[in-house]
Amino acid sequence: YLIMLVMSSVKLNLKQTAVWLCVVASVSAYRRKTGKRVQISVEVPEEILNLPVLRHDGWVDPCFYSTMESVLEVWKSSRAQYNKGSNSLMSLFINKCFSSPTSWDDKFADKNRKPFINIESDSQEIRDEVARAVSKTLKGQLLKNPPKCLEPVLYIYGSRKHQLHRPFLALGMYGSSHAAKVYWVRKPVVMTGYWYDLIAATVTELFSSEAVPPPNSTVYRFPQDMIPPDLTVFISTHHLPAQSWEDMSVEEKRSIGWKSRYADVFLSFPNADIHELKYNGAENTTQTIVQLVQQQLGQRFQLEIQTL
Predict the structure, then answer these.
(1) Of the four listed, 161, 186, 192, 264, which is most buried by Cβ atoms within 10 Å?
(2) Together in a domain, 8 and 143
């Protein structure tokens, strides 16, 4: 199989670019699943690597979303409108996720808010356990993605096999981001399943190691309309012995190779201050994160630590 994509001499619009990105991603996924050799020759014009927004046209999933507007366009498209639960989802997002006004909307006014901490891992089970413990120790508010406001439609869009799973998670990120601004004036916010997690998982699933977008791609640019964490911690677990399949949840049934590649992508975000910790038991890891919070954020924020 030989696919030649030579585009340096053609002026591409955003729609064509979205098609191009997903063709490359789809071919890479096909090669991994079937083992068949597929050669791709691509000449990439500079403007492709630095597009500000990838817009959705109703038929082609651009794979990545850099603004709330780009996510909402997916759900307004003809493809999404005919999906079960799409109207309920939009109603929940508008009327539930944004029902509370934000207490403070200035992310730079540290004295008027508490810290926003993002905890991720290559094991969702371990991530969730540690995040709960850290939130309790900091007397904080634990938030997750998908957020509680979208739980009524989680049974529809929660499966990774659903064609709208990624835009569902992208929509949830904005709901969680709004919730963080509601809570952080009163207590620290601990978040899981946030932007870095979604992008790293998407890149890992769609691209082979050889076809990962370069560091200067806009894929890795944090959305300007979403609040960035004050501290991001990544808990590595792929060094641990593999569990038996019978003991693993659906989310954990991923190969060691997938976890390793996901971790590599996560820790390679340019201009991102991500702190990696190797999992060493829930209690020890929780204590290490709390100490890291005190070291990194103790001078900026007033913290109240509960004795472990």
Answers:
(1) 192
(2) no
